[in-house]
Amino acid sequence: MLEKLTPEQVALIPVMRERWITRALGGDNSFDKDRIHKGIDFVYALSGLKEPQFKIIVQSPWAIQYAANILPIIFKAFGEKSGDQVGAQVRAQVWAQVGAQVGDQKLKWFNYDYNGYGADAGWISFYEFFKQIRILKNEKFDKYVDFVSAGAWDCVSFQDVAIVCTRPTKVIRDARGFLHNTKGAAVEWGDGYKNYFCHGARLEAWMIEAPEKITAELALKEANSEVRRAIIEIMGLDKFLHQANPKILDKDKDAVGMPRQLMQIDLKEDEPLVAVEVNCPSTNHKYFLRVPPKIKTCSEAVAWTFGYEAKDYLPLVEA
Amino acid sequence: MKQYRHGDVFVKEIDEITQDAKPREGLVLAYGEVTGHKHQLDAGEMFETKDGKLYFRLNKKGKLRHEEHLTITLPKGNYEVIRQREYTPKAIRRVAD
What we know:
The structure holds two protein chains of two kinds.
Chain A: H1 7-25, H2 33-46, E1 54-58, H3 61-78, H4 88-102, H5 117-132, H6 139-149, E2 152-157, E3 161-166, E4 170-171, E5 187-188, E6 194-198, E7 201-203, H7 205-209, H8 216-221, H9 225-235, H10 237-243, E8 247-253, E9 259-265, E10 273-279, E11 286-291, H11 298-305, E12 315-318
Parallel strand pairs in A: 1-3
Antiparallel strand pairs in A: 2-3, 4-5, 5-6, 6-7, 8-9, 9-10, 10-11
Helix pairs in contact in A: 1-5, 2-6, 3-4, 9-10
Chain B: E1 3-6, E2 9-14, E3 22-24, E4 28-31, E5 38-41, E6 45-48, E7 54-58, E8 62-65, E9 72-74, E10 77-83, E11 85-87, E12 92-94
Antiparallel strand pairs in B: 1-2, 2-10, 3-6, 4-5, 5-8, 6-7, 7-10, 8-9, 11-12
């Protein structure tokens, strides 16, 4: 029984973690069709199911949903048995026609299963570590890893059809690893589908592409506190505070006579947002600094931003 | 002990620079992440601890400059550098000017 890892084994942990993060999110969306097909058959066999007649590879989770929604229509149109008699060319035409008809309809997500990097990279990297240090040996695991490694991001399985999508082509994250890009999409897929995130909170595309259209009213209406914080960040704290009609908790002048004010905005299901507005004596620019909600005065707030209590914060010169 | 504020950088006079801090190249106390502006000394020696705490020593009077802020003159002495921080509910992060 394994009781303690050697230093070499401990050092392998971050290596394995980075390897799988890079494979999943590194922007390489290449795939091996034969290995994906073989992997699908393996997953079906493992579940005691007959291998699917159709294996479709698409380039985004959106395309999976889209395909999953129009498939029942195609199958209905051709009858359940006709699938194998229909030539690829005819099927392609039907795709195009049916796709055009249902394109505007609301899509339903079929939560059947998930197979691929998107759902599996985490636990695979965990067990791969134990395989690397020769604790784990399992042929089924190896086959499954080979399927995922062939470039599968996600898979939705039906009785006769499996739809797999490939990995994203571009992923941008913040220093803490959260999906994040305030200048454009944080995730891009091979077919042009994009996802927008700010510090892990998913936002609508227009919020990133046209942040000037965001209003404080919209931010305050947002029920999810993570998303609301992201919206306020994108909008800019200064603009948000001006529009949101804050309560003024305190007003004073700093040591060099520049005005300051402490403002509070109450947020649904979140702690209140308290920020101090300060004016730079050199540039005359206004700055807004968010401080802990327990703070009640401007001097306490400014002192806090440098790690001081108000009574100990006594700069001789401010510039 | 005297304190000075230069925009989002705070400088505090201290008795001694901690032994943990090792000499560091350069005289820049902080860079603005967006603007590339910098808070820079015209003389002295800098020290930094492993966890990124900054200190400097002036053996004679020195000047702290920045592209946008007025210059502050500091007397001979040992100093600790404190970056302004901003509160976020999840974590505390430094202000980037």
